[in-house]
Amino acid sequence: ETLMLLWSLIVSVYCMGGMIGCLCSGYLTAKFGKKKCLLCNNVLMIVAASIMGCSKISQSFEMILIGRFMCGFSAGLCVPLHHQYVGEISPRKLRGFANSTSSFFWSLGKAIGQISGQRELLGSQTLWPMLMASCGVPALVQLVALPFFPESPPYLLMHKGDQEGCKKAIRQLWGEGQHQAEIDDIMKEKATMKNTKILSVLELVKEPAFRWQLYTIVILTATLQLCGINAV
């Protein structure tokens, strides 16, 4: 019973960390910017992977719990942040395609994880720490590559008011050319946001205008947990 309890905690603490990470994502993004948050998030994931990878040597299941929580927090922070950053740095004609690649790579990552976790591969008694630490590999790749990318142009213009920085980022991302139309669109969005109140989670739940949309999302998410995908 004790082992079952510990195993359940190790599995579920990832989701708890993910929930907290999602709730913090909006505040951290607005305060520090999307690129900085992604860079710090990668460092957090590498630290979590290192902790889990060293748990067997240290003979500490507590390290697995801590690493799983940190990994979940990192994933929860990254999910909305990654979508926003990829969408904002992509040209308008490629924005939908760029955002759709996220779902593809999430599914691909899950499939690779399931395959790698087989006992014949990394799921053996000796290699499972490497399996748990493998989540740090893509984080390390992004940590090395991301500094060569600029900050999100909409963030620079809407939150920092840096129009020249926004133009420079757009030219770096999309090449030389006339991009005034995209800048005008960002300015229109900024003007719209000034007249729009940003709701907290509690205010969103209490707002009657969004009640049916909220019901729909809750029902879809709840039934997804009952469709058997976790068992599969």
The secondary-structure element order is: HHHHHHHHHHHH
Q: Which regions are unreliable across 5 or more consecutive residues at pLDDT < 50?
A: none
Q: Mean pLDDT score, rounded?
A: 85
Q: Structural class, judged by helices and strands?
A: mainly alpha
Q: Using DSSP, what is the number of strands?
A: 0
Roughly what fraction of the amino acids lie in strands? under 5%
- Helix content bin: over 70%
Count the DSSP helices.
12
Rg measurement, Å: 20 Å
Which term fits the overall shape?
A: globular
Distance between the termini: 24 Å
What is the name of the CATH class of the largest domain? Mainly Alpha
CATH superfamily of the largest domain: MFS general substrate transporter like domains
CATH architecture label of the largest domain: Up-down Bundle
Remind me, CATH topology of the largest domain? Growth Hormone, Chain: A
Biggest β-sheet: count, sense, barrel?
Answer: none
- The domain tally reads 2
Descriptive notes:
There is one protein chain. With 232 residues, the protein is mainly α. The protein has two domains: 1-149, Growth Hormone, Chain: A (Up-down Bundle); 197-231. The protein is 75% helix and 0% strand. It contains twelve helices and no strands. It has helices spanning 2-32, 34-53, 55-58, 61-89, 95-116, 128-133, 136-145, 153-158, 163-174, 180-194, 201-206, 211-224. Helix 1 (2-32) runs antiparallel to helix 2 (34-53) and helix 2 packs antiparallel against helix 4. The longest helix has 31 residues, at 2-32. The protein is globular. The two termini are 24 Å apart. The mean pLDDT is 85.
